[in-house]
Amino acid sequence: MIRIGHNPNTNMLPMFHFLQKEQPLLECAIAEPTGHNAMLAEGRIDMAPISAFSYGEHWREYAVLPNLSVSTKGRVGSILLFSKVPLETFEGLTVALSDASATSVNLTKILLHHYYGVHPHYVTMPANLKEMFEKAQAALLIGDAAIQAALLHPDCFIYDLGEEWFKHTGCSMTYAVWAFPKRLLAEQAAEIEKVYQLLLEAKAKALNHMEDIILECQRMLGGSFDFWKDYFAQFNYGLDLTYVMGLEKYLGLCYELNLLSSRPVLEFWPKE
Ligand SMILES: C=C(O[C@@H]1C=C(C(=O)O)C=C[C@H]1O)C(=O)O
């Protein structure tokens, strides 16, 4: 039995919609990314699409499943910094950060500190734009909370952090990787390999049946068919060499800016 983290956001539907969750091999724990980050670190689940940043915190203990990620090269559409003022004027202001995110929270800090040269204060809060704007001049939302807030066309600047990252680095950005603790390989390597195959099959089926995924998104959040088609067109759920380079750039900057205490080295399993 492998206990996996199930992320309920629409951007993860291409991984979960066709996954055979009734498989006796699988047990699913539904949570936002930071929930899975903590559950995996504490051994309450065995594998999850965790925040890339969380991999950076635990890289010595974890292995990454190859060919799987949540990435974009440029615009992402659901990692959005809503702001009452332009980014360049953030010095000394307060930015509210969604408590559901780890990768994007640190991506925000990289962009603001390293590329815009501004150092605001931060507060971490549940994802609610109205309440965040009561405490801060800007608010970071991810996933469905970001999509829903943007669909309401709030009267503020909206910065897409995938686009900002690409603009400054020319790199892709990987938000999530599928990781598991390497210690599980001693007794459960065959089960992990089997779950890995199930994940690859679920993804391949979804990418060949995107109409089904889009209909599910419309049921969940509304929005037009073209809106969702455009949203998913940005995403890459694989992890080829160019995406690995973007991920290494992000993790390296996290280390250089003291957001991580060591420079992560990616270790994949199964080896290809
Ligand atoms: C693209 C997204 O990526 C997510 C963002 C994460 C983070 O910021 O820690 C973690 C997992 C990803 O699935 C999103 O939620 O919009």
TrEMBL record:
Its EC number is 4.2.1.151. PANTHER family: CHORISMATE DEHYDRATASE. This is Chorismate dehydratase. The keyword Lyase applies. It holds the Pfam family VitK2_biosynth. It comes from Desulfosporosinus orientis (strain ATCC 19365 / DSM 765 / NCIMB 8382 / VKM B-1628 / Singapore I). It catalyses: chorismate = 3-[(1-carboxyvinyl)-oxy]benzoate + H2O. Keywords: Lyase, Menaquinone biosynthesis. It comes from the Bacteria. One of its GO terms (biological process) is menaquinone biosynthetic process. Belongs to the MqnA/MqnD family. MqnA subfamily. The keyword Ligase does not apply. Catalyzes the dehydration of chorismate into 3-[(1-carboxyvinyl)oxy]benzoate, a step in the biosynthesis of menaquinone (MK, vitamin K2). One of its GO terms (molecular function) is hydro-lyase activity. It is an enzyme of class 4 (lyase). HAMAP family: MqnA. Pathway: Quinol/quinone metabolism; menaquinone biosynthesis.
